[in-house]
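<goal> How does this chain fold?
<body> The protein record starts here
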Amino acid sequence: TRLVAESSSTQFFHTNDGLSVVDLDSFESTGDQIVLLSANIDRDRTGILGSNLVFEIQSHEIVEQGLPGAGLPNIHQLRILPEDTNDDGIPDNTDLNNLIDPEVDIVFATTPAPLAVTLPIPYIVGQGDITVTGDVTDPTFFETTVAPFSIIDVVAGSQTTFPFPSFTISGAGASSTFFPNGQTFRVTGSTGNDRDYVVQTAGFTLGYQEVDVGGAVTGTTATGLDDSTPGTQTVDYSGTVVGGAATGLVGINTYTATITVDGAPIPIAIPGSSAPIFSSLIIAINTALGGAATSAIVGGDILVTSATTGATSTIGIVDTGTFPLFFSTTGFSSILAAVPGTDGTTYTASVVINGGGAQPISVTAVNVPTYADLVTEVQADVISATVALINGNFRITSNAQGSGTVAITDTDLFSSLTLFVAINAAVPATTDTLITVTSVSDSTADGSILLWGTGDVLEDIFITVDGGSTTAIVTVKDYVYFRRESLNDEFAPVDDTLENIQFFSDNSTVTPELALARRLRGRDDFNFLWVHVTPRFNLIDPAATNIIDMFIITRGFFTNTRNFLDGVITTQPEAPSSLELRTEFAELLDNKMISDTVVLHPGVFKFLFGAAAIPQLQATIKIVRSGIETLTDNEIKTQVVDITKRF
């Protein structure tokens, strides 16, 4: 376990990086601190901190595996420890109990009763986010989202013994929204029914009226209302055409026409050899139309009919080309005027919802071939009510809970339905909520209450007195929530909104490597100060115009370092100090401009590879021998070492 400070907008470049030896090349910040400012909100979210909280920086965090830069320092995250304020050598408040996990103090009334407590931060049900302690024993508490008015006092009400597995709550104080299907709730303090239950069905009885159509229709059942007609056009042969009669078309010619169906032109090209008689001509035309329309011999003429119906259904026939199709056939007289389709009969009715004005209903036959279409069309005309097929009949239901009414008046719409039986008597709404439940498990009675809730992410709990407690403390665990867009992305902190917390709850059953959300104990959204101490200790003359930093590697230091790496000497040489450089290069300083300040810094080496390098920079060099190479293994090793040294 470690304590991490993170800022997505701050780049903490200069930190200690965990090095035990502090020198000018380590980017050390032995004195760096993160300071949480006193104006931040306090632990219990009731005021401000009142004083700064100081944390000492230890090092960077490391970028996680599988992400770009894995294994390198994360410049947005720091490992920190609280300041040791009493000089006992131990950081203070390492559990951060002065900063996280808000507490709410509760005092119970003299008479035992459920007490609703609104918490300062949200939490997740069943994750152990809540603890409650009392002055005698731990009080019983229930995790639920509902507000106090949604608690039903069973003893005070008229119902003390529920006729399970179903019961009715009377009066306007109940609502089906309090009892969603699948929700678990608890009954306590009743007569013999104290346990948990799961809601199977719940809801007010709403006012409605049904059109009885036999109780067996579905959405695909035909209404029998559709008397719309298709668009047609006739090629006139004075009634002389029969299927076996010769068309007169010449086999070597291709005859053409254009038939426009519902506004879309379809070119027709038929070789004379494929239509020697009229029956084969009809087959060829239908093949070209592709189902958009059909042609047939009707009354000795050729009739072309659109596959659709209604006012937009049309046919348009035009002969084209050098060999016009219909003009070239034997007995051709003319192409008669096209007959457009019709929408069919308009049917009407009306309905009064909740005693208001009559709402007219008007549907056109072409739009209601099935009962599903009829539901859609009627719903478009009706407000404050829901139209649906219920138990195989057509029903209009008021949306008013506990008080709605429906009154249907038919003109010719419903009575024209093929399966019409009658318009049944209207059923008024009631103010009762009927709830059907199944038992889950037994529970101990600890108050005269009925509780329920919805969702996983909650902001309230209800507490009942248990074992004589008169006070209690509710503690909520603080978490920082993280999300990522894909498995290849880095987790980024997000606000602890109900949406983000619910997203984590939905992902909590996924293995960590596949999760898109996670949470860590802690807290976010602090105002802070990063106190950074420079690693350079040179005094600078502020009167100088130019400040020149010079980094010098002396020949002696370079030679000694090479000898150390070659094993000639066993002690790693130290770089000369700034004072030694000023002494050795005094002549250089004497020749600078009077307006300049020159600061001499010793250059140092960072060892790559080999035993002298720090463990993070040590590496194994693997060589693949060529199949045609004649060098021995020792010769290859010697050359690799020489090349690496020259590099």
